[in-house]
Amino acid sequence: MKDFAYKNPATIAEASNLLKQDGRVLLAGGTDLLDVLRNRLVPEYPKEVVSLKNVSGMRYIREDKGYLHIGAMTTLAELAGSELVREKAPALAQAAESVATPNLRSTATLGGNLCQDIRCWYYRYPNQLGGRVNCARKEGHLCSAMMGENRYHSIFGAAKVCTTPCTGGCPAHTDISAYMEKLREGNVEEAARIILEANPMPAITSRVCAHFCQEQCNRQQYDERVNIGDVERYVGDYILEHHDEFMRAPAGENGRKIAIVGSGPAGLAAAYYMRESGYLVTVYERMKEAGGCLAYAIPEYRLPKAIVRKYISILEGMGIRFVLNTKVGEDIELEEIRAGYDSVLLDTGAWKRPLIGISGEELTRFGLDFLVEVNSYIQERPGAEVVVVGGGNVAVDVAITAKRLGAPKVTMICLESREQMPANREEVERVLEEGIEIINGWGPELIMKEGPEDAEKVSGVRFKACVSTLDASGRFAPVYEEERKLELKAYVVFMAIGQRSDLGFLEGACKVETERGRVKVEKEFGTSQPGIFAAGDVTTGPATVVKALAAGKGAAVMMNRYLGGDALLVETEGYRPGLVRFSADCEKISRAQHGALLPAEERAMHKEDQAGLSKEMMTCEAGRCMNCGCLAVNPSDTANALLAEDAVIRTNMRSLTAEELLTTHTRLSDTLKKGEILMEIVVPCTDDAAISRYDKFRLRKSIDFAIVGLAYQYTLEDGVISRARLVLGAVAPVPLRRKKAEEYLIGRRLCRETAEKAAELALEGALPLADNAYKIDVAKAMVKRSIMGEE
Question: CA 146, CA 149: separation in Å to the nearest integer?
Fold first, then answer.
């Protein structure tokens, strides 16, 4: 065990103040905590252990006005041996007596038993910091019980204990597993609302996003990752088809006006979230159509223009006004816009060509300009032999577009290795399917020319070998092998190696500070001018659509705060309490569903390459999501009894019902505030007419934790049940009250028929894993026994 400081405060106030500092943990009995520390089960070792053993007045059992008052430092042995507890709270006494061994019960306390850590073997694997077991409760990100040994784990779903990798990988932080669960339930409407909390344009992002979420999917550790993009596309298209249900004008206006300069993904996202909360929104756009890169830089075979136009029309239907063919800095000045609005957001993107300074560069074409021309319906074959310099998604789009416009030979060449290319994996595969050659590890040295000096044209490109692109810190710093050269013949060379922002419109009276060719912003998206914010590529350089829209959402939140508005609607959403569920057949469906992809020879400029999923395919794919959470079960026997007995737990700060304290989170420390300490447990005395017990199924009579626990109370009047409490333990991450079974029991007599039906209701919704379905039968038998009065 590592060394740590040990504090023995004399008062609760002193202990609380110590615990408010980071790196402090509380010691009650110590039977659990010392084992955690000895085996170094947690990623961060505490700096200090704060013991309550010297705090007086926390170890007692007394009755007062129909309630038992029990100090949190009372030992389990004292509870189990107390005649008062046996008579007035028998389920609690039996639960205490069922814990471990007499020796441990004499040390373990009631407060400590309630707060103990989980007893999952993946979590408790010694020296886990070596990374041999992936545990979501520590530095890992999945629960190994989903696909591994799980005979003692939950049969009622999982608990979210960390951000799932898919959500963490998504720049918009979409709660992917939450909407997948709604889709499995057949509730597309609620799935749509969950997506819209983070992403107002899923029909677009699903088609063009790099799908960082899929790259992080836990499922790929076992078989094929979940095809999140195609599932999102199904929901996104559903939103467009039913937009009146999801994207309406606000119920009321708040009287504030904002302007957005530029209609790229960041601007459109900000416009949506601000308008949703009652702002009047005007968007200024220099092009004849709104959408920015969505309308002009992404080929139609990836993103049909009808989708973008439909989305813009929906925003207009919400009351967002678009002022088109208006270039800020020429047709209207930024200071004029600022004067007419309460706040302004800049989202002018990155549309200018960067120069790299090689000879002959002036004879090449800018790849982004080429895509804009094609999207403006200027579609001519670019040349017989085309070379595209660059390895990102823009380079991919340029190469494929040139090929589809009839260029017989297209070569794509970049500095990066195949594995390091910025373009996502699916797009690289698409390039190769089109018959386009990709050459990796070369950088342009000069453009070769031919013809007279006043009419020179491109004849090819000379490259030099690139041996690495990043330095030790991960920054872009290419290293070349100067003596190795490569020459490629070309009639047209497209440069697709980055973009710059046009910041000329900032040179007027309303001067906004810039830095390295971008608008300078703080992390709150504010610029040097009060009330003017910025987001998207104009602040970061070229990035993905989803990163831009995430920035737009963040900017909307900060603009609203600047204006002193109530929290945006999107800020009030997000937390979803309770256990999460998954498909019972989840682990059996190893192959992902994919929309039909056109054969390479049938692909064209104005026809979408890939179809979406059918409803059946979407449902099947959503069923593959493991809804990653912790499947460990609650370990505390006394928690089950206290929940059944409607106890109240008093801390040094407040009073909580047993349900509030014991079922809100899987760890009590997540429910308790910093410095909050359990002081007293108050239990209503059991009525003389009540049957109250705690039953525990385990492999050995002592030592072992419950495989299934059952705490119950039945109050009888003339042989009829007038009040019922049924709490199952060790079957879920928290104790479970089976309220449907309780309601059924009211007004019924104790008989076999009643027992059979109550048992079925108590286990309704069970979701067993591969190895623990037996728990259902055990729990049913225990419920039946409790009603029939059988031992």
Answer: 8
Sign of CA dihedral 171, 177, 178, 181: positive
Q: In terms of Cα–Cα distance, which of 8, 110, 96 is closest to 60? A: 110
Rounded Cα gap, residues 464 and 180, in angstroms: 48
> What pLDDT band is residue 128 in, cutting at 50, 70 and 90?
very low
Mean pLDDT of the chain: 93
Is pLDDT above 90 for 462? yes
Contact 284, 326 (CB under 8 A): yes
Structure token digits, residue 161: 């204990």
What per-residue confidence (pLDDT) applies to 127?
Answer: 55
Asked if 379 and 401 touch (Cβ cutoff 8 Å), the reply is: no
Lookup: tokens for 734: 């928290």
Positions of E strands within 672-782: 678-684, 690-697, 708-717, 720-729, 736-737
Phi, psi at 269, each rounded to 5°: -65, -45
Where b means 16+ CB within 10 Å and e means fewer, 472-499 reads eeeeeeeebeeeeeeebebbbbbbbbbb
The strand order across the sheet containing 655-657 reads 61-64, 67-71, 678-684, 648-651, 655-657
Question: What's the Cα-to-Cα distance from 368 to each of 354, 491, 782, rounded to whole Å?
Answer: 11, 18, 69
Mean pLDDT confidence for 413-417: 96
Q: Encoding tokens for residue 580?
A: 């999460």
Spatial neighbors of 602 by CB under 8 A, at least 6 apart, are none
Burial bucket for residue 700 (CB in 10 Å: 0-12, 13-18, 19+): exposed
CA separation for the pair 203, 321 (Å, rounded): 21
Question: pLDDT-based confidence at 132, cuts 50/70/90?
Answer: low
Look at the chain and count its residues: 791
671 φ/ψ sector (left φ>0, alpha ψ -120 to 50, else beta): alpha
Q: What is the average per-residue pLDDT within 720-734?
A: 97
Cα atoms in the 13 Å half-sphere on the side-chain side of 729 = 26
3-state DSSP of 334-399: HHHHHHHCCEEEECCCCCECCCCCCECHHHCEEHHHHHHHHHCCCCCCCCCEEEEECCCHHHHHHH
- In Å, the largest CA–CA distance within the chain is 112
Are the CB atoms for 108 and 31 separated by under 8 Å? Answer: yes
* Partners of residue 714 on adjacent β-strands: 691, 724
First to last CA, the chain: 44
Of 271, 346, 351, residue with least CA distance to 519:
346
Q: Is the distance from CB of 308 to CB of 208 less than 8 angstroms?
A: no
Would you place residue 791 in the very low, low, confident or very high pLDDT band (cuts 50, 70, 90)?
low
Helix (H) or strand (E) holding 79: helix 76-81
Tokens of 735: 């104790």
* Exposure string for 245-278, b = 16+ CB within 10 A, e = fewer: ebbeebeeeeebebbbbbbbbbbbbbbbbbbbbb
Alpha-carbon span 595 to 59, nearest angstrom: 65
What are 449's strand-pairing partners? Answer: 458
Asked if the model's pLDDT at residue 744 lies above 50, the reply is: yes
- Contact call for residues 512 and 531 (beta carbons, < 8 A): no
What residues form DSSP beta bridges with 495?
366, 389
User: Could you give the strand order of the β-sheet that contains 365-366, starting from the edge strand earlier in sequence?
Assistant: 365-366, 492-495, 385-389, 409-414, 437-440
